């Protein structure tokens, strides 16, 4: 009912505009042309309105018979989406000003208006972010131009050039290139020591929707931003990354992968690392992880949070005959009834690095958001439970 009302409203509005246009054309012809020419123009306008009615006959049949959106041809679906976008924009919904061409294929394959409105909202936020980003870039360009003029003025006066207004400083100004060099220096030591973390990007075909890939890229970028938090972070490998896949294309639209200091390869981790060193982290594994193994190479599945997901990582570890483990989350954290236990890539990375540096699961699980947690267990309580489980049967207590 909603889509029929929207499209019928758009059609009535288009017809109203066409009638007004024909009326204006008819009145202008009355004032400048003879009566015979006016009759010809009126006949042409009537024929044009009849032609538009004939062209829109499929749309009236679509609304009258309540046909499925996917039963229409691609051209007709595009026309329906255009009317839908115009009507929703005028009604005050969050609709982007321009829909990117690469999004039209996904938009035309969404069967319901609710799913299309979800994509409209996502594109609206992305467009708003790009506008804000362009405004920040323009402000930075103006600031750099003013700084360059100030430096030229200082050089002309014989003074030392500096970016600090009004005074000189012994400290050097650090820009983005210097920050990148600092990140690379932090990653050189773990890369030389062989401490690796693998993100398996081989689940691209399981992400049916484009915004799942965008969510996955966001998580990888958040992971890269947390590298400087640790004095010896593990070096990150992006394996099974197809050179012509959708994930690589979406990465290139955001930022170049070379700027993240990650090792990207199309090869599998089985071709790079020994099989006996690999450990696949999967929430569906029946092997509980106890401590951080500095000689192991941990693998994390590159999967965004999907409702009703299948045990993809566990199944892949079983097929490839790789060791698999899961975090002992239930021993330290009690989740809420409506919250899922799935973790993002940056949360998994922070948990592993905190466990690597401190050896404490309590400190590591602090990176699980509080919105998902009802209660956090202390390490002392957990140690008592371990003692009861190990020594209880020996002294006659129930385990």
Largest sheet: 6 strands, parallel
Strand order of the largest sheet: 3-2-1-5-4-6
Number of strands: 8
Number of domains: 2
Count every helix, treating DSSP H or I runs of 4 or more residues as helices: 14
Query: Which stretches are poorly predicted, pLDDT < 50 over at least 5 residues?
Result: 19-53, 380-399
Please give the alpha-carbon distance between the first and last residues.
60 Å
Task: Tell me the CATH topology of the largest domain.
Answer: Alpha/beta knot
Overall CATH class of the largest domain: Alpha Beta
Provide the β-strand percentage band.
5-15%
What this model shows, in words?
The chain is α/β, with parallel strands linked by helices and 399 residues long. The protein folds into 2 domains: 2-124, no CATH class; 179-395, Alpha/beta knot, CATH 3.40.1280.30. Helices cover 54% and strands 8% of the residues. The chain has helices spanning 2-32, 35-55, 57-64, 74-90, 104-108, 113-156, 176-193, 210-225, 246-254, 312-319, 329-332, 345-358, 361-364, 379-395; strands at residues 196-200, 235-239, 263-264, 278-281, 297-301, 323-325, 333-335, 373-376. Strands 3-2-1-5-4-6 form a 6-stranded parallel β-sheet. Strands 7-8 form a two-stranded antiparallel ribbon. The two termini are 60 Å apart. Residues 379-399 are annotated as: Disordered.
